[in-house]
Specification:
- The structure is a single chain.
- The protein has 272 residues and is of the alpha/beta class.
- It has one domain: P-loop containing nucleotide triphosphate hydrolases (Rossmann fold, 3-Layer(aba) Sandwich), CATH 3.40.50.
- Helices cover 42% and strands 23% of the residues.
- Strands 6-7-8-3-9-10 form a 6-stranded mixed beta sheet, sandwiched between helices. Strands 2-1-4-5 form a 4-stranded antiparallel beta sheet, with helices on one face.
- α3 (101-111) crosses α4.
- The longest helix is centred in the last third of the chain and has 16 residues, at 175-190.
């Protein structure tokens, strides 16, 4: 019997005050070790889904599962859940609050009740993983936007989660900043961390994800291998998304489906 997905939502519904239905019977799975891109237009439910995947919101219908078992919303259950599943918000200013970078990154490990030595070790590892050791003593309000994004991610890394949820990870970053962040994330994934990211950048999803879930109206229209889902033009049109540029180019010049990934890899090498 195969292992259950690390995270799953089954028929989850959620309405905000005023009757705004953000999720409407949404079902989705997060395979262990995957790079899962969650795509959808504004208002499709991406951020609300993430807030359910780490226990911040509780579904009004359906259930969330962690390792195949119903996720618990009691105090002890949430502590364990958020130790295993970290969330990086789109706006790092919503996540950074301590005076210095090191203090901010240490907040999570301290809440786990770790010793001072263990906390220092985790902070050092997280800062090194993201190449921001030199920022340890920098006041958080003096960081650039890209630095803040990496510090927010370091705060999650210090918890040593099995899953990291990233809400629009490259939003607001220039090309070099995006490349740097994605390189760090690739290393984390290669080491076994499951990554789930929402994005409006369908070309990023095609190039970087191995699975894609397309949301529309609070529901998951389809989930599957990135190359297959993102080649479904009617599906993307229904969700208010355009096909990846690489597929449009491939179709225009007559490249076969078998060769599209090779073409994409060559284009990626040209950007590096």
């Amino acid at each position: 019997m195969s292992a259950p997905p690390i995270l799953a939502v089954h028929g989850v519904g959620h309405a905000y005050p005023g009757g705004v239905q953000a999720l409407d019977g949404l079902t989705l799975t997060v395979p262990r070790g995957a790079r899962l891109a969650v795509l959808g237009a504004n208002g499709s439910g991406k951020t609300t889904l993430f807030l359910h995947l780490n226990g911040t919101l509780r579904p009004s219908a359906g259930r969330v599962e962690l390792d195949g078992a119903p996720a618990r919303h009691d105090r002890q259950g949430l502590l364990e859940w958020r130790r295993r599943v970290g969330l990086v918000l789109q706006d790092p200013d919503d996540q950074l609050f301590a005076a210095t970078v090191a203090e901010d990154v240490s907040f999570g490990p301290l809440n786990l009740g770790l010793s001072d030595d263990d906390v220092r070790t985790r902070v050092a590892e997280a800062l090194e993983a993201l190449g921001i050791e030199s920022l340890a003593d920098r006041p958080t309000h003096m960081l650039s936007h890209g630095q803040k994004r990496r510090v927010a991610l370091a705060g999650v890394l210090a918890m040593r989660p099995e899953v990291i949820l990233l809400d629009e990870p490259t939003a607001g970053l220039d090309a070099r900043g995006s490349e740097r962040l994605l390189t760090r994330l690739e290393r984390l994934n290669a080491a076994g961390t499951t990554l789930v990211f929402s994005t409006h950048d369908i070309d990023l999803a095609y190039a970087w994800a191995d699975q894609v879930a397309v949301l529309e109206g609070g529901r998951c229209l389809r989930q599957g291998p990135a190359a297959e889902v993102l080649a479904d033009a009617p599906l993307l049109d229904r969700a208010g998304l355009r096909p990846p540029v690489i597929l449009e180019i491939a179709n225009a010049i007559g490249v076969t489906a078998r060769d599209r990934r090779q073409l994409l890899a060559r284009l990626a090498q040209g950007r590096a």
